[in-house]
Design goal:
Layout (H helix, E strand, L loop, with lengths): L1 H5 L15 E4 L4 E4 L2 E2 H7 L2 H10 L5 H13 L5 H8 L7 H16 L7 H25 L14 H10 L5 H14 L6 H10 L5 H12 L7 H12 L5 H10 L17 H17 L5 H15 L8 H11 L7 H22 L21 H13 L2
Antiparallel strand pairs: 1-2, 2-3
Helix pairs in contact: 2-9, 3-9, 3-17, 4-7, 6-7, 6-11, 7-8, 7-17, 8-9, 9-14, 9-16, 9-17, 10-11, 10-17, 11-17, 12-16, 13-15, 14-16
Length: 390
């Protein structure tokens, strides 16, 4: 009985590791990467500098960052065999499924599992950070029957990805906003996909399998797909006047309001606040979004109805509006989440290797004992007997 009472569905609140990578205070709305607030990183850093911080535990020097950025640029292209494999994927397939398959395929070309070799670890980090965006952009074009756009070495990380999606050099503001979005999504302690990466890493398999495992976990709608659902919800509401009855109906049915609530945060997610500011910058330059007023009213109504229960906007609530204004298709929102989170997954992979022990949780058995094996001919007789009495 004691064991059953100690069981935590979803392992909620159960520590899985000791980590120095990121920190969250859900009561105060604090998120830090290696002790630096997400607000500072969003304002002053770049995604690649933040990735370096997460993975190697310190901010790089100017020379270190330039060398890291140069390596990333050099490794952006993907093998033609991977590209040809992706051309065989069904056009109707979800980009997350394409990304998981492509990430795993990288292991066929680069896996030596030299996990005690710092050079191998660095090369794996560089390749995954460099090639994942290329694969996402390539599948987006190939599923429309077009050849993928080759990366441009003269563009930085985020501008290059937006260019590969459209073959048009993005506006500097759009590229900067997208880069901040990647920084905001780069890491968030031990969430489902990060835990998946850690479990896979603990077996000492190659990092490409680790990332493929995490991508598969992120693909679920309870984890990475919520910002797609937020846009669907805003479209269903349709008008500001419909917000209150829509929310009241969901509350009455005890249904989830997409983009609201978080397992950790009991106040507004600090990333949601930054994303809202980014959305307003985009609207100011490129035009208003018809659903933004609905989103503002929705946040107000939900706070009034459920704020006392700690239900506030999470990172997914405004990110979809930002991505849509950037011209990104809705089913690419989660792959973009993956592009960002690769840096966090790799940070935890690298940390796991320093203190590795394979994960082997236990269970609480709820089945029966001392059952008797029934031969198959007797089972059939029993079934026939039941049917004859109907």
């Amino acid at each position: 009985m004691t064991a059953v009472s100690e069981f935590k569905p979803g392992l909620e609140g159960v520590p899985a590791t000791l980590s120095s990578i990121s920190y969250v205070d859900g009561q105060k709305g604090i998120l830090e990467y290696r002790g630096i607030s997400i607000q500072q990183l969003a304002n002053y850093s770049t995604f690649l500098e933040t990735s370096y911080l997460l993975i190697w535990g310190k901010l790089p020097t100017k020379d270190e960052l330039e060398a890291f950025e140069h390596e990333i640029r050099y490794h952006r292209r993907i093998k033609y065999r991977i590209r040809d494999m992706m051309k065989c994927f069904p056009e109707t397939g979800h980009p997350m499924d394409a990304l998981q398959t492509s990430a795993a395929a990288l292991g066929l070309f680069y896996s030596r599992r030299a996990l005690d070799n710092p050079q191998y670890i660095r090369e794996a980090v560089v390749r995954l950070l460099a090639k994942i965006p290329t694969m996402v952009a390539a599948f987006q074009l190939m599923r429309k029957g077009n050849d993928p756009v080759q990366p441009r070495d003269d563009l930085d990380y985020s501008a290059n990805f937006l260019y590969m999606l459209s073959e048009r050099e993005p506006d500097p503001l759009a590229a900067w906003v997208f880069d901040v979005c990647l920084t905001l999504h780069a890491e968030h302690t031990i969430n489902a996909s990060t835990f998946s990466a850690m479990v896979t890493a603990s077996t000492l398999t190659d990092p490409y399998a680790v990332i493929a495992s995490a991508v598969g976990t992120l693909a679920g709608p309870l984890h990475g797909g919520a910002n797609e659902e937020v846009l669907v919800m805003l479209e269903e509401i349709g008008d500001v006047e419909n917000v209150a009855p829509y929310v009241d109906n969901l509350i009455a049915k005890k249904s989830k309001i997409m983009g609201f609530g978080h397992r950790v945060y009991k106040v507004k997610d600090p990333r949601a606040t930054i994303l809202q500011q980014l959305a307003e910058k985009l609207f100011e330059k490129f035009g208003h979004d018809q659903y933004y007023e609905i989103a503002l009213e929705l946040e107000k109504v939900v706070a009034d109805r459920l704020g006392g229960k700690g239900i506030y906007p999470n990172v997914d609530f405004y990110s979809g509006l930002v991505y849509r204004k950037l011209g990104i298709p809705a089913d690419l929102f989660t792959p973009i989440f993956a592009i960002a989170r690769v840096s966090g997954w790799l940070a935890h992979w690298k940390e796991q290797l320093t203190k590795n022990r394979i994960f082997r949780p236990t269970q609480i058995y709820t089945g029966s004992h001392n059952e008797t094996y029934v031969p198959i001919h007797e089972r059939n007789c029993a079934i026939n007997l039941e049917e004859s009495t109907l």
